[in-house]
Amino acid sequence: MGGRSLWLVLRRGGCLWGIRSEHVRLVTGCGEGYCVVVGDRSLVADEVLRVHLDLNVRPVGPIVRGLAPPGSAGFGVCEHGPLVVIDPQCPPAVLAAK
Amino acid sequence: MATKAHAAQSEQRRYLLVRAGSRRCAVPVDRVQKIVRSLVLHAVPGSSAHLLGLAQYGGEPLAVLDLEAMLDGGAKAGGGRGQRMTIVVRAGAEQATETVGLAVDDAIQVITLNDKDLRPTGPGLAVAEALIGDALVTVVDLQGLAGEG
After folding, report:
1. Do residue A83 and residue B148 have CB atoms under 8 angstroms apart?
2. What is the pLDDT along chain B (149 residues), one digit of tens a residue?
3. Going by CATH, does the domain composed of B12-140 fall within 2.40.50.180?
């Protein structure tokens, strides 16, 4: 998870989520929130906070992996607080468009 | 005589005595990195109730677990009871530890327990019990901390 990269930081369900911007195809407004297209999936966000360079990210360790929502690839920190890194292959269900 | 005395001493281990709900727990001191008051926790929707939330600690993300719920196995409805303290520990197997926070109600004192005074209770997170005064203390083995939730 090292190296310089851009991250999109979202808020959904009161929690911050981050995804590498290279996985994001499109961000559009939808209803009162945002639709974020990742691969062939549409995710929803209550808020799109910013694009962040070089987020401080750690992979989820084996102890926490079984407790974190499925689709969590790691944890990170940005100026808004701690966040969950989204696995673009299998994003957490809370982000799924209804 | 000197050898016997040394052997007896080597069975003593130091623990941080904490209160987690109705339990008193002994956490190995050598696994404790810090005790932090009033960390701001950010709940993670869709997570196990054992994961109380994420905190920012020293510029790093820190997953904070509910020690009482992890010991009892059951999930607390709503997750957490407003525990006042977080013990930052190295958990997991010795060669691959993971830094996590354990939410507790109070950190009481550092105690020394002799292995011969422990009553084994089985593998997992709670490995033994000890009687300290009138209080039953659960001895925690952080190598046994697993995230099955």
Report:
1. no
2. 445 555 555 589 999 999 999 999 999 999 999 999 989 999 999 999 999 999 999 999 999 999 999 998 765 544 566 778 999 999 998 888 999 999 999 999 999 999 999 999 988 899 999 999 899 999 999 998 865 44
3. yes
Which of helix, strand or coil describes residue B71?
helix
The answer, for B47 touching chain A at a CB cutoff of 8 Å, is yes
Among chain B residues, the shortest Cα distance to A78 is held by B59
| B32: its two tokens | 């404790």
Residues 6+ apart with CB under 8 A from A56: A76, A77, A78, B59, B60, B61
Element (H, E) at B7: helix B2-10
Q: Which residues of A touch B142 (CB under 8 A)?
A: none
Alpha carbon of A93: minimum distance to chain B alpha carbons (Å): 7
Q: What is the ipTM of this complex?
A: 0.91
Q: Which of B42, B100, B146 sits opposite A82 (nearest CB)?
A: B42
Domain boundaries, chain A: 6-95
